[in-house]
Structures are given as C-alpha cells and as structure tokens.
C-alpha cells in the first residue's frame, strides 16, 4: 500500500512539473458523446486543412460515430503518406480511453513533424451508446449499444433491466440467503463473496443477483435490459456466435461494420492502435490458444505434392518446406508464414513467432520508457484480448502491426496471488485500492433491504467502473505518461528504400541490374501475419526509361516481403542500345517511396 | 409525313423499352433466358398483372448500382405478410448460374397465374408469404449476358481484388479474341504436346499415353497477358465469392478463398441480409445455383457438427420428395458430399435466420445424351478415361443433332500476339452448366414443384380444447391440444439449440379468470404435467412437424377464456371457450 502511494505521488509530481493545459487537464470529467462531438468540431475549426471529421455511421441509439483525420493529405486525391488508425473505447466501458484518444490527437497537432509525412485516423468513441451509460443518473457497467434485443427470448423486448433499489445511483449486487445458495462470505474480507467449495467443507449460503426487480415476473432478474450488442466483441477474429452480447454476426453492429469498411477502404493504414482493455505495448499479445495446425508435421495433398514436386506420403516441417521452396524459387521471398497461407494450413490463432520478436522488443523498451519517467512496475498484468475483439481482428485479419493500451490498471495483487484468473485476489486488490485511494467509495457496504419478491436481503458490492476507470483527476497525468509512446511507435513503421543498385554491362547493350531493397525498420514488411494472410499490398518496383527492352524480369515487379532490418535482392536484365537514364522507383502506400536515377552506358 | 411520324413514335417506344415491356406477357414464357433487364421487366409484368397479390420490393443496390428486386406474393385477405410462414426463394448468387433466375420467375408465375383456378395453388398462396429474389448477383447476371464468358465465369460480385498480389486490381481478365461472345479454350499444334486428337471426334482431345506422339498443347482460356507479367487471365473480376461472404462462421480469405474482406462486405448481400432479418417469419429457404443436379442441405462445415436429428427428419422428408419430383437429382449434405464452405448462405439461414434451407444445383449435363441405351449415365460416376470421354462424345452428338450445333464452337485458327498460330474452340457460354432453352421449361417446372412441395409443408397450427373438467370448488382442469399436420416445425431444432429465436407463445387469459398453474402435459392418462414455475398464463412452446403438443392448465373463476397462440413463423391462432 505504501509503495503504491509513492508511485502515485510521483505521478502527481510529474503532472505538476509538466503542467500543460491540454483539454484533458482543463476538463473536470470524462466526455459524453455530445462533448466528444463538440471537441471534434472545435478541432476541425481551429486546424483547417489539417483536421477533417467524418461520420462513419449512426448507432442504434441514433448517435453519430465520428472519425477524425489528421494530416496533410485530408483533401488529396492521391495519398502518398502512410497512416495509423486509432480506435478507442470500443467496449464503451472505459471513458479514460476516449480521453486518451483526445489527448493523442492534441499531442499530434502540437508538432507538425507528427503529421507531415504520416496521417492519423482516430475514432475517439467507438461505442457511443455504451459510452454514454457511464453518465446515466443510475450507473451500470454495460458494454452494449442500444440495439433492442430480446435477450431472454420471451414475449417482450428489453423489458427487465437493472433497478437502483437503494437510490444510491449505483447498480451493485443483492445477496440473499437461500437453500440453493452457492456463495459465502469470504474469509479474506467480509465484504467479499466467494463460491463455497464443499470439498473444503465450505457451505454455500447466498444467491447473488444484480440489483433490481423481476419486471417481467419470470423468475429471472434483470435478464433483458436495454440493448444490445457489445461493439468491442463484434469483430470477425475468433468471433463467438450466440453469446449474450456479441451480436448476431461479426459486423452486425453498424459501428463495427463501419470501422471494418473504413479500414479496408484505406490501404494506406500501416498500423492500428487500440485504446481499450488490453495492453500490447506493455506485454506482447497472448499466445496460448490451442487448435492450430502442427507446423512440424505438415502433410501435403496429392495436388499440392504434384505442384511442388514433393512427396504426399510423408510429412514435412515448415522449415524443410521453406528450404526446399526457396531453393527452387530464388527470386521469391519465401518464409514460413507465406507457405502456411499458401498451403491452406488453416487459421492462425496465436501471434506469429516472427511478430512476437518486435512485440517483445517494444515491450521491453516501453517499460524502460516508463521507468525513465519515474514509474515503478506495479500495475497488474494486462488481460488477453477478448474473442471477437478489435485488436485481434486488426492483427490477424488486416495483417498490420497492432498496439494497444488500457491506460490504467490497479496495482498488482500481493505476491502469491498474481494471476488475473484468481478473481478473489483481484477483488481484494480492488478493495484496498478503494480503501486507500478512493476513501472507500469504490465499494458499497452491504445493507439490508426488503425486496418485493426475494424478501429480506442485502444490497452492496463494487461500484460500477471501479476496475476500469480511475478518478478523472488522475487522467491528465496518466495520459501524459503513456500516450506519447504511441508517437515513438509511429516512428517504427516499416520503411523501404532502394539500398543499392549495381549495374554490370554484359556487352552489346545488355546490362544486368542487381537491385537491393532494404527495410530500415525493425518491424518486417508486412508482419508475419500479413505474409500469412496475404492481405497487405506489395511494394512495387518500377523501371522507367526510354527505349528499354526487358530481357529478364519485368518493368513492374511486386515486392511482397522484406524482413525487419533486412534486404532483398532483385535482378533485372535490360537491353538499351543507346546510352541514357533509367529510373527505378520503389512505391508502397504503407512503407514509403523511393527513387533512383541510373545512367546506363556512355 | 404522318406515317413517318408514327414510325418514329413507335421506334421511340421500342427504344425506350416500353413496347418490349408490353411484349413481356403474363403468363411468362420459359423457352428463353432473361437477361438482367428482362428479369426486372418480368417481375414488373407479374406485379402489374396481379397487384393485389404481390408487391415489388426494392431490396437494395449492387456494387455497380443495379437494383435488386424481390417479389412478395401474399394474399392480404389471409393476413399481413409477416403473420404467415415465410418461404424465401432466390437464385443466381453466382453471376453465371443464370437459370436459377428463370426457376424463381417460374415459381412466381405458377403461383400467380394458377391462383383461383387450381385449388392446390390457391391454398399455397393463401397460407404462406413468398419472398422471391430471382437475381441476387445483378451485376453478375448483367455481365454474363452482356460480355463474353465461359459457362463458369462472372461468378464473383464486382468488388475489385488484387488476386495475383501485384498491386493491380482485376487487370488481367479473359479476352474474347475472336469476338464470338464466348470465352473458349486455346490450343496450339505441338508434336511434343500433352494431348492428341480424339479418334472419335476431331473436336475432342485425349491425353497422350506414355510413348505416344502428341499433337496439341493446351493454353488455357481465351486471353492475352493484359498486364505484361508473364501470366494470362490471372486477375479477373473480383474474386469475391458471394456465397462465402455471409455472417455465420465466416473465415477470412486465406482460409476460405473468396470470402471478401469482412462478412457481408458485398453491398447487395448486406441489403438482402437486412431484408431477411426484417422478415422473422421466414421458415423455408431455397437458393438456386448450377450445376450438378442436387438438393443440398447443411451443415456447411465439418467442424460445426451435425444438425439435431429431429431437423434431419424434416430435411429427409423434403429432400427425398424433391428427388422424386426431379428424377436424377440427389439430396446431399454440403460438407460431406461436396466440401466445407465457410461463411455461406446456408450457414446464415440455418443459424441466424433460423429456417430450413436447400441449395438447388440445377441441371445435369449428362442428360445431353445420344445413345440407344435408355439408362442415364449415373451422375457422379466419372471414370476419367472411359466415362468422361464417353459423356463428351454423347454431348457433342447431342450438340450436333439435337441443338443444331449451338452448344459447341468448332476449332478456328487465330493469330495470337504471344503464341502465334493457335486454335480457339470449345463449349460455349450458354452450354455445359445451362440447359439448352428447349429443356429449360422442364427444369424450371420440376424445381419449382420442389419449392411448392415444401411450401405446402410449412407449419399450420390447430388449437383445440381437449378437455375441461371441474376438479374443485373453484378449480378447473383445462387441456389444450395443438396440432401441426405438416412436416415443418414452427422453429428449427437448430434454433432451439442455439437459443437464437423466441419460441411460440401460448397465453391463457380472461377477464374473470385466474391461471393457477400451467405446463406441458406429458401423459394425458397418467395426468403427468410439468408445471411452469412462474407466470403459468404465458407458456413458451415449440411445435414439432407432423405432431402435437398438449398443455394443461388449472384455472379458477368463470366466464370466457381466451387462448392465444402466437408464433414467429406460423400463423397466430385463437381459441375461446366458456369455463
């Protein structure tokens, strides 16, 4: 407890010293949709030619979903610069992440070097309907948009939601003694509840409900509240059908559909950033999913074996296949991801090995970045991305590097109880955070109440948003500390150049051109996942010149793969009778443009 | 002067399409194919002729801004269209699979033109609502007729995609080199070739056996290397397979080819999905494709696991009858008998719309026979050396003597910019997957009859008072029987398993009535009922196909009792009696 106090004091000190008046610093509370829209429009007005807003769609609750574009090409027909897409608060339950997007936009605009060769697309509030629930007079943590859904499949829609029975403006829990009860008061803290384990001789006493009455008198409590679909789990990667709030199918929510449509209509997007529930800056994305193809025992079909002159009766490891196919196709960039995609080895479920290299590198550097600013690593472990989430979709299906930040977490539980799976440990930590830093306001003490149908019970429990949303007074310093790292990452985009061109005259006007192309960045072009799903566009090497005939190779060569800090070589043989200049161009919407003029002959 | 004026006026009418629309008479004819514009005219003609029974719905627009229309057939006198079981029929989701459009028009034409004269058809129209979309892929159909194609091309919807990963989009399509409106095959003389002329018919070729001298090499489909990258026809329109772009169990392109960037990225498809979601009464879906002669049911992928066995009984009943209506066609299972397909329409309709569904693969080219042997070649029996050559021989003779040469283009020389002297020839666009027009009506009628058979089996629920007995001073035991004499339940068992849809509701009410208890009667003789714990006056029930369900209530009070049965997918019923 003392240590956390210290680290937080440091935070406040940092805030005092930096002391800027960003919008976040000036405000007193998190932003409603109307306030976000006001801010968007204001930004547009004060930055003409550099900021443009678009309404991507309208939510079921009839709120507009805004996207901000920042850069020098907002009115250009032809775009040359790469861009970064930022989506915030897609589950609607983290108003701090919307502040983060606002803070980032203002940080970008504070210095032209942030946007003169890079554009930004920012969605500050990805789930406006859910985001507005934070501001309801009665607060209830709920990620669903306002799409009317008959959750309990009865004869009415949205007829039985939560109710603030004790009038404290918060939806907490009700505990009632019942013979079927499976919960008991925890020994760790009498405010906490835990499931009784009969194996340990524990006896279940209580049933637990969310606060409310049974409006439709069907015996279930609050099972069909207003809404809706959780936009943040309505994306296609590992999407789960027929869940309570996942929607009907990926993209059934207009918000997620509009975001996917926008991203695929903008192939200049080179990176995606998510401000939400995960933190892929702090730790690499989780890697423990089961069910992927075994890359050490690949069996080819008859047709594939015929096609590659291989043996269908034996298995190969992925490395063996890379070696064999590289040898047969020297001009192609063959690697594991490409072969896995080409052979149809099925869905990738975990981040690719090659990509984990850059995730690990940047996680290490990010922790050093935080340390330099005086932060000690006390936060609890970031949680894995949810099935159907925005960041999983970005990494696995768009095939670009994806980074995320949750922007705040409570401190790590006491040693010995570290995993977030240990709910009790996390709850105890939440309690101590509430007790020490929120004047115990994060927990409503159990108090008796006479319920119309359940009889004598007690109402109490954690306040909504306790684990996701810190007091607004901390927002500015938290964001100042973390959000600038995104600008560091923006400088790490794949960066292609013509490294060297060697011209060899072979006589009679025939010239061999050996062209080396380098990627100066650590992140490969594209990511391993992008190579596997073959989604990102290749870079194009073009040869221009008058009276040039191609002897070997083509005037237009796609370059589909250059590893991180690596080079690839292409060889072209041309025929030019008269001496003159040729131009080699290297163009990629996401990785840059380069050009070299070469004198041939003479 | 006046004559000229009249001529010009008539010409103007012709050009504007008015006269041709008038030419399209109802009943429609099925001895020719309808291009996209003619399909729209046909639907307009049907609606014009039967305004009370139909509505023409603009569902949405395609990528190239063509309108997608649905024809709703419903008799307003038997209820609002949403109150009756919905039968949805569509076709031509793959742009080249055009006869599906004619089958859908046939269904509409049959239902409307025989209404009032034919008892069975009259009752089919009165009991259901029909939603008919003859052309899902409007751009595909338009381009199939308008442009040169193979019988398999123009399947995709018009979303440009960089298929060959060269940074260009749809830059190397087929090319109609000889301008005959077909994309045929190219071959070149080569003594080291892989093929030689078939001794049976010089139009055909057979593979060279080891040791034999060759005559030809095959150069693929008609085309040139439009983008100069050393490959021909490697990046045609799309490729986005509209039948892999739906929202259930969708997988991205690297796992399921043609899936598109994200579910329902196709604008027309998204509009149709919304159209269907707005009609929760749809319980039976037919989607027509070509070819092969099949009635396919889901599941679409192996990893989904089989449907509940109670659903299989419904499918088997409808499928087997369809096989008898259309002899030669087989009732099959998608993932097992064909291959797994992710994100297809079947997955969407069975798991999200909550209906039963068949995909009809229309036409079998092996029916183009020329043989004294009366037995049709067994479909699926394709002995590569003997059988295939044999079928091709017959089809060629059929082409010559039954179709007067209209199905096959003889090899003609051509000077190709890259290959030099080659020959172009082969099966034409309007062949192989499509019946010659003279066989179209039979195909359309039989497949339409399969649709109508299932339409006759949509749920119709009868609610009866089974028994009423005074069992106490102020207590009555009332038994209600609900019967469905048709094969299709009011909700699929798959929907029950997924909990994706609301069950049917049975409500008991009365101004002076109180419902003390209520529940399903499991055994009327033993008086075994499972009473519902809360709100006994509202029961959630599911009606099976060919079956009954019984409910028992304990009521107190007096006077009129009203029993209301309401269902998403069957017509609501009401029963009233005195206590």
Describe this structure in words.
The complex is a heterodimer of chains A (602) and B (579). With 602 residues, chain A is an alpha+beta fold. Chain A has 15 helices and 22 strands. Chain B has 579 residues and is α+β, with helices and mostly antiparallel strands. In chain B, strand 6 (195-197) and strand 7 form a beta hairpin. In chain B, helix 3 runs parallel beside helix 4 (99-113) and helix 4 packs across helix 12. Residues 14-21 of chain B have low confidence and may be disordered. The A-B interface holds A 150, 153-155, 216-219, 236, 239, 241-242, 248-252, 257, 260-261, 264, 341, 344, 346-347, 396-397, 532-535, 537-538, 540, 554-556, 558, 560 and B 162, 165-167, 227-230, 246-255, 261-265, 277, 348, 351-352, 498-503, 505, 507, 533-535, 538, 540.
Distance between the termini of chain B: 85 Å
Q: Helices and strands of chain B: which structural class?
A: alpha+beta
| Order of adjacent strands in the largest pleated sheet of chain A | 1-2-4-3-9-12
Low-confidence stretches of chain A: 12-20
Strand content of chain A: 15-25%
What's the count of strands of chain A? 22
Largest sheet of chain A: 6 strands, mixed
- Provide the structure class of chain A: alpha+beta
Regarding quaternary structure, what we see is heterodimer
Q: Count of helices of chain B?
A: 13
* Weakly predicted, low-confidence segments of chain B: 14-21
| Overall strand count of chain B | 23
Q: What is the rounded Rg of chain A?
A: 28 Å
Task: Write down the overall geometry of chain A.
Answer: elongated
Helicity range of chain B: 25-40%
Q: What is the CA-atom radius of gyration of chain B, in angstroms?
A: 28 Å
Largest interface: A-B, 39 and 40 residues
Q: Give the fraction of residues assigned to helices of chain A.
A: 25-40%
